[in-house]
Amino acid sequence: MIAARDIGFRYPRNDAWVFQGLSFEIEAGQIFGILGPNGRGKTTLLKCLVGLIKTSTGTLHLPDAIGYVPQGFSTPFAYTAMDIVLMGRARQIGTFGSPRAHDRAIAAAALADLGIERFANRLVTSLSGGERQMVLIARALASEAPIMILDEPTAALDFRNQSIVLHVLHRLSRERGLTIVMTTHHPQHALEIADAALLLQDGDRHAVGPIAQTLTEGHLSDLYGLPVRAAEFDHGDRRSTAMIPVLHSARQAAP
Amino acid sequence: MDSTVQAENGRALGGTDLQGVGVTTGLVLLLLAAAGVALSVGRYPVGFWDLLTIAGGWVGIGPGRAGVGETDWRVVELVRAPRVLVAALCGAGLALAGATLQGIFRNPLVGPQMIGVSSGAAFGGALAILLVLGAAALIGLAFVFGLLAVMIVYLVSRQDGRSPILMLVLAGVVVSALFGALVSLLTYLADPNDTLPAIVFWLMGSFAVANFTKVAIVAGALVLFGLPLLMMRFGINLLSLGDEEAEALGVPVERTRWIALICVTAITASTVAIAGIVGWVGLVVPHLARMIVGPDHRRLLPASALLGASYMIAVDTVARTLTPAEIPLGVLTAIIGAPIFGILLRRTQRKGWEA
Predict the structure, then answer these.
(1) CB–CB of B233 and A98 under 8 A?
(2) Closest residue by Cα to residue A125 from A161, A78, A82
(3) Domain count, chain A
(4) CA distance A97 to chain B (A)
């Protein structure tokens, strides 16, 4: 789905690389997590994957259409949830077109698929953070792109909404074979649903691979520069892992 | 009143197709009523039945011209009808331009005047009058300098791919001041017996010497450049999301925005060329329309155009009937528009841009 070979990015007239020498592949149907400390280029890499900016070096193969889910709305206008989801159809509708019944049906189906059809005529400004996130995911779904790229989809959400969003992403991946790429600051979110992960460290240091081999105590301790402990939970039907930073030693910890 | 509730009421009005038809019908009736009143009142009042008889003649019903006095017919058809038509077309064009600009700049506070199109076009037109270049050059130069002004505002206000509200307003002030000074320079250079009064009265704005040639010019600009805007009104929704989001959704952002900007500039320049600087219409009318139909540009653009036409006819009628001498149009639109804008500013300061 996405193949990156030795890609790097730096801003024009700036010697410092935001990231460099990155190689990874994201297979169709995978959930792919991108982790890394603040300021190590997660957002920049995501913009490259969405096609908003071009990498400075290397080759990057992207699919034709991508469903992008930003962190929130930035429009000053109070559109309804339906208006917003319809905009996901932009590629099919074109600059001089208008949404047709077919587009409205797909948008309505996207809202229904996520169980939020009741929001259709609500103003997005009146929705909570979690509800807005779901509307943005519905918009990406309405675009019918085979891949969804999400910028920290759980960042501003409470526990319950984090769980709802993660569950939806997992279900979309399994039921529809959707490829999902997301950045996150929560290793356990990646552990819960991701198949593979990319850890962005410094300029040219990174680790990529199946989730069980990348999101380990050792890698995460190294990545964030403090001891991280894994805690195992047995839910009866399945097991899950949580990664917990050891707080008291954070100040003097060295990678 | 809570503005969220208001906006939801507005959307409920336009919520379904049937209700959308209802709103459109209401706006069309309002326009017809405004036109009817404007055709009948004035220094020589024309009665309602005489007006109806003349209007019937236009669509081939009844005796038409033969059924009324010669003077009534002359006043309505030769004097008032072109004036009302020019006013309606200019109002529709300016409101359409304003609604588009507010969408693509993602900022409900911009209008054709605030982002410098008007002052740029004014300079172009004044230059054409000063050099006695004729009507075609007036329109052409108004367009070229209007576009130049917008380009300067756009480039100056742009930071990291965005045009923040403050930068946009400040850049508009800068460019308007620049072209304002250049217009002053032109009036200083103009011949006090000939070109100077021509420039001054042209700038103040008026529909007083409307004729069917002017109707054709504004109508032509509206068809050529207004229809593309109406066609791309879903695209304007997309642009209002911001560059990155729109681009990620697959919109060719720069191209779409420039097409819209050129259309807006052409429409504004044509109204400036015909009627001088008629400010505030493009700023205020889209807000009023947004209260009725909500912020979705698919409804907002046509609603703004219809409402703008009614608004302009109403203001022009007041301008020519309130006092024995006509009040310059640009003066009146500012006197009416500025307080409305002030109220909107205060209200939205508290509530955000929901209505």
Answers:
(1) yes
(2) A78
(3) 1
(4) 6
d(CA B298, CA B301): 6
Contact A70 B244 (CB under 8 A): yes
- The answer to whether the Cβ–Cβ distance between A95 and B251 falls below 8 Å is yes
Residue B238: which of A52, A90, A126 has the nearest Cβ?
A: A90
Question: What whole-number distance in Å separates Cα of residue A209 and Cα of residue B121?
Answer: 60
Give me the domain span that covers residue A135. 74-144
B9 touches chain A (CB under 8 A): no
Assess A74–B contact: CB distance below 8 Å, yes or no. yes
**DSSP class of residue B328?**
P
Domain membership flag for residue A98: yes
Q: Residue B103: which of B263, B250, B279, B270 has the closest Cα?
A: B263
User: Would the CA dihedral through B10, B16, B18, B24 be positive or negative?
Assistant: positive
The residue of A95, A104, A122 whose CB has the most chain B CBs within 10 angstroms, and thus the best one to mutate to test that interface, is A95
Residue of B250, B255, B354 lying closest to A65 (CB–CB): B250
Pick from B111, B4, B1: nearest CA to B352: B4
- What kind of architecture, by CATH, is found in domain B82-351? Orthogonal Bundle (1.10)
In a domain, A120, yes or no: yes
Q: Over its length of 255 residues, how does chain A's per-residue pLDDT go in tens digits?
A: 899 999 999 987 787 888 989 999 999 999 999 999 988 889 899 999 999 999 999 999 999 999 999 988 878 888 999 999 999 999 999 989 999 999 999 999 999 999 999 999 999 989 998 899 999 999 999 999 999 999 999 988 899 999 999 999 999 999 999 999 999 999 999 999 999 999 998 767 889 999 999 999 999 998 988 889 988 888 888 888 888 888 765 555 444
CB contact under 8 A, A68 and B298: no
Residues of A in contact with B246 (CB under 8 A): 90
pLDDT tens, B194-249?
999 989 988 888 888 888 989 999 999 999 999 999 999 999 999 999 888 999 99
The rounded distance, in Å, linking the Cα atoms of B308 and B305 is 5
Closest chain A residue by Cα to residue B230? A96
